[in-house]
Backbone:
């Protein structure tokens, strides 16, 4: 394919808008490369408008289009950044619920959102089985302490003879989940509740956490 590529020049003239104010130099003519020829022939054969190819840089854009493209990329980068900042602020302003603890032998009920699991709820989708106690119930909380101490994201807030409350903090956004344990000595089981402080869905994090704790406790 020749360097001047008359057919390619004709294709370009047919597809590109005319330039009315472009300066010209006498005795010269525009030249296009063989690569441009191939692109223009392909576009004509496929009946593709060159305007649809501008985002890929195949067509020269004006200064205004370049500014719009830069604004678009700024928006693409800025929106996720604002979302991250918003999540961080949401996590920082979340407060510890006042309903935590044991009342009449039961932990607090889960909220309506699905980011909670409990062994003392009637909702099938968030109910889990309590942890069975094999040895002495008096040693159950001590064993739980050892399990939680091995988790770098856990911090024990409150602990007494039958109750333990720990906070689990996520690594990225510092979201806090409240995890409670209640030792039922008569039934020889440990009831628990794990709930996220903010958000709606936990993507199964609370359930997976309690499954891991239950497995570690049974070893």
Residues:
């Amino acid at each position: 394919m020749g360097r001047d590529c008359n057919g390619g020049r004709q294709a370009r003239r047919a597809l590109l808008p005319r330039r009315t104010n472009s300066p010209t130099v006498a005795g010269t003519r525009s030249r296009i490369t063989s690569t441009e020829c191939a692109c223009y022939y392909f576009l004509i054969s496929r009946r593709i408008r060159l305007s649809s190819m501008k985002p890929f840089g195949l067509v020269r854009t004006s200064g205004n289009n370049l500014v719009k493209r830069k604004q678009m990329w700024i928006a693409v980068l800025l929106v996720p950044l604002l979302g991250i900042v918003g999540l961080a602020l949401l996590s920082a302003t979340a407060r510890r619920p006042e309903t935590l603890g044991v009342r009449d032998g039961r932990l607090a009920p889960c909220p309506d959102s699905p980011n909670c699991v409990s062994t003392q709820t009637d909702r099938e989708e968030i109910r889990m089985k309590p942890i069975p106690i094999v040895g002495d119930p008096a040693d159950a909380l001590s064993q739980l302490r050892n399990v939680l101490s091995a988790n770098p994201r856990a911090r024990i807030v409150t602990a007494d003879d039958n109750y333990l409350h720990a906070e689990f903090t996520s690594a990225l956004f510092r979201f806090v989940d409240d995890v409670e344990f209640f030792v039922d000595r008569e039934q020889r089981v440990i009831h628990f509740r794990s709930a996220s402080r903010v958000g709606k869905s936990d993507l199964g994090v609370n359930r997976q956490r309690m499954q891991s704790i239950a497995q570690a406790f049974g070893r």
